Amino acid sequence: MTTRTTIQYKVSAHDTSGPAVSADWRCTCCGKLLGRRHGSAILVQFARGHRYRISRPASAVCRSCDTLNET
């Protein structure tokens, strides 16, 4: 009989042990995820599958708290 063990690791958003491929762009007021930074671009995805690649600098209004956020 063979036993198979699955181990899951939880990686913190503040984990600096490895190279950062992307960084989260979050609202400065409520912390909601607005997009992900990838070098000089920001990737934004909405619930219905709409995806956008935006060049930096960028600004957005948070859909939760209406705060203006800039990169």
Q: Termini, distance in Å?
A: 55 Å
Instruction: From the alpha carbons, calculate the radius of gyration and give it in angstroms.
Output: 16 Å
Order of helices and strands: EEEEEE
Describe the main β-sheet briefly: 4 strands, antiparallel
Contiguous runs where pLDDT drops below 50 for at least 5 residues? 4-19
Arithmetic mean pLDDT: 79
Number of strands: 6
**Could you tell me the strand content as a percent range?**
35-45%
Q: What spatial order of strands do you see in the largest sheet?
A: 1-2-3-4
Structural class: mainly beta
Shape: globular
- Measured as a percent range, the helix fraction is under 10%
Count, helices: 0
Describe, in short, the structure shown.
With 71 residues, the chain is mostly beta strands. The protein has a domain at 23-70.
Write the layout of secondary structure elements.
Blueprint: E1 23-26, E2 33-38, E3 41-45, E4 51-55, E5 59-61, E6 68-70
Please characterize this protein's 3D structure.
This protein is mainly beta and 71 residues long. The chain has a domain at 23-70. The chain is built from no helices and six strands. It has a four-stranded antiparallel sheet with strand order 1-2-3-4, with no helix packed on it. It has a two-stranded antiparallel sheet with strand order 5-6. A hairpin with a 2-residue loop joins strand 2 (33-38) and strand 3 (41-45). The model is unreliable at 4-19 (pLDDT under 50).
